[in-house]
Amino acid sequence: SYYVPCCLILNVYCGMMIMDKFGFKIIGCQGPSMLPTIDENDNLLIVDCFTPRFVRVPAKGEIIITENPFKPGATLVKRVLHHEGETAEFYSYRERKNVQVE
């Protein structure tokens, strides 16, 4: 008698996991780093997971979502400026140098 509801719940859960991994997901975003494109207050973003995984790499100027390497479990929202292998100029008050993008 519990078999049909359990199968239904399991199918819905599996469908949601597949959609989250390969379709799209909704994430929360807050902070000023992407102003004025994305407001600094709480926002919900719909993230396309299919295109970067199967179709093409993100183009310059597109917005990407990535895991924060300094805060595991936290995400970063950034704009693509350079691709792997390109040379980027790095400016600081002390020095100016070129760096290789990896």
Structure description:
The chain is an alpha+beta fold and 102 residues long. It has one domain. The protein contains two helices and six strands, in the order αββαββββ. The strands form three sheets. The protein has a two-stranded antiparallel sheet with strand order 1-2. Strands 3-4 form a two-stranded antiparallel ribbon. Strand 3 (63-67) and strand 4 form a beta hairpin. The longest helix has 21 residues, at 3-23. The chain is elongated. The model has no long low-confidence stretch (mean pLDDT 86).
Keywords:
two-stranded antiparallel sheet; two-stranded antiparallel ribbon; Mito_IMP1_subunit; alpha+beta; 102 residues
Distance between the termini: 56 Å
- Topology order in helix (H) and strand (E) letters: HEEHEEEE
Give the radius of gyration.
Answer: 19 Å
Low-confidence stretches: none
Largest sheet: 2 strands, antiparallel
Mean pLDDT: 86
Choose one word for the global shape: elongated
**Given the structure, what is the number of helices?**
2
Could you estimate the helical fraction of the residues in percent? 25-40%
Into how many domains do the coordinates divide?
1
Number of strands: 6
Strand content: 25-35%
Give the structural class: alpha+beta
Strand order of the largest sheet: 1-2
Quick structural gist:
With 102 residues, the chain is of the alpha+beta class. It is built from two helices and six strands. The protein has one domain.
List the helices and strands and how they pair.
Layout: H1 3-23, E1 24-29, E2 43-48, H2 50-55, E3 63-67, E4 75-79, E5 87-91, E6 96-100
Antiparallel strand pairs: 1-2, 3-4, 5-6
